[in-house]
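Lab notebook, bench 4. We co-purified these components, and the gel suggests they stay together. Before we commit to crystallization screens, I want a quick structural picture of the whole thing.
Request: model the full complex, all chains together.
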Amino acid sequence: MGTDTVKQNNQLGRDFITYLCYKSDSSQGLFECAGVKRIHLWIGDKVLLADDNTPPNSISYSGEYFTGADLKQAIKSGKKVIEAQLRIEADETACTLMLRGERLDIVNLRIQSSGAATDDSEAQFYVRMLCIEQINGILDDLYYQFLREISGNSWEHEGYKKFQTWLNKND
Amino acid sequence: MGLYTGSASYMRYKVEGELSGSLKENVLARLNECSFKDLDQLSGRDTSIGWVSVENMASTFFDDLHFAKDPYVAVSLRIDTRRIAPLTLKAALLREELHYKKKTNKERLSRKEKETLKEQVKNSLMKKALPVPVLYDMCWNTATGILLFFSTNKKANTQFMDFFMSTFELPLTPLFPYELAQMLGSVKKGKIRIENAVNPFADSSRAKIPAMKIKVPA
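Here is the predicted assembly.
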């Protein structure tokens, strides 16, 4: 399949968020970015999954009570995660956001930075942009890791099998 | 909204190309040329679009270069629209038609008369309607060429892309999944084979996922 198919397919974003959910659940939320930072990424209180049918069959989970088993069941039935609330902790920055797979846009990003509060609007701007760019950098790094893994030679024989093991493991 | 405080929702773009000459002077000139103008200053228009200060939506003063927060350019896009609710127009039109019929002693109005009345009523209501503003923050990192537009609304993004282009004459590429993959592949020197990134979780050519067993009640 060529790059045109990948573009038209428009599934890259959904595959990425599905991958994040799998990796987060299977590694207790621990990720590495750029070989240096360690970050924690967890799935939050809202997840929406849908399949490729026309019209699509979708299911959403919200609140505290949905589990990894619920997620796996939906993925087994052919659905992918099309949007998910994420919680990210990296260094002194913590945030929650909704990541949407169709356009990889960020919705309702809320940053809890432990940096000192300031009345200076200029300083406020820079602190905020620093946090936003840090979060974008983390997501870009994770997206790059995802793309490298699934497009690499070892995905078929190793990565996919690990994914299947996770999918079929009872919680 | 979203750039300084509160929750933030945004789309990311890659700005294609660069402005020539002194960046701050170039941006200043373009912001001044395409700054927001109140609808009261634009007769016959029901929409006004333009740049305003990110710190004060009522200000189009850019000469102090407050928008230049190195390496960022931070401004807001303001769009004011005058709208008349459809039922408001209908009620006013029916009232005018009754008044006109009484004045002219006519029982029925011609199509042309109705159209003329409708136009007059609409213009009269438009003059009285208060413009409704919407405001979107934008932050352009001129060092990396990545721009954040603080709205995920599709129509707002389309309006923004068009207006950015007409202001700065630089096209924007939205960093959708495929485009972001291309950009990251290029930045990281092409270690991603995007053509292989199709349906990584599909089982059609791999071992089947065990089928779910459903118990049918006796």
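Residues 11-80+133-187 of chain B form one domain. Worth comparing against the SEC data before the next meeting. Strands of chain B lie at 8-15, 47-53, 68-69, 72-81, 132-141, 146-149, 172-174.
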